[in-house]
From TrEMBL:
This is (2Fe-2S) ferredoxin domain-containing protein. CDD domains: TRX_Fd_family. SUPFAM superfamilies: Thioredoxin-like. InterPro entries: Thioredoxin-like_sf.
Amino acid sequence: MGVPQPAFYIFKCEQSSPPGMPKPSCVNPQTQDLFQHLAGTLMQKGIIATVQPVRTACLNRCNAGPVMLVEPGHFMYYGLTKDKIDRIIDEHIIGGTPVAEYIIPDELWDAPISPEAMQQQMGR
Ligand code: FES
């Protein structure tokens, strides 16, 4: 038997904007410890070997931040706090039921477009 793949990847946006930037970003002084909280909680619960937290750059949903994407499944969680992360870990990651009320609204996260369809839209 080989080394098992992770069951989940959690991509946490770690983008911060310089002071004075009008565009919001996921990391600011109030939210800068969310990734540490996520990773620490996975470690504390003994599941970090199969749930891989990943720091990412901007996931392009800045106005809804802080955000994180749970794969598999394309589940984008928004407006994160430590309490919300705790519940997502317990109910979605461990329990298997996504936390519907924390998932980004459909108007900000519509169905994906295939790369082939994207090329056709672009006339290539
Ligand atoms: S800064 Fe986090 S989605 Fe853009």
